[in-house]
Amino acid sequence: MAYKFIIKKDKAGEFRVNFVYNSEVMFATEGYSSKASAKNAIESFKKNGPEAEIDDQTD
Fold it and tell me: In this predicted model, what pLDDT tens digit does every residue of 14-45 receive, in sequence order?
């Protein structure tokens, strides 16, 4: 699988989620105080992401 979610702990001790595709970070989340919250964010992306609308503000 070329894409994955990675949970890391930052220097401030917060958990962050990176979405990685072919070893490149496509996006990163805010910091969460618990790993459970980071995992909830991943589940939210999985559930809501495919349905997300595209807001093209370049026009």
Answer: 999 999 999 899 999 999 999 999 999 999 98
pTM above 0.70, yes or no: yes
C-alpha to C-alpha distance for 55 and 1, rounded to whole angstroms: 28
Residues 6+ apart with CB under 8 A from 34: 15
Of 3, 32, 34, 7, whose CA–CA distance to 18 is shortest? 7
What span, in angstroms and rounded, lies between the C-alpha atoms of 29 and 31?
Answer: 6
CATH code, 3-49 = 3.30.160.160
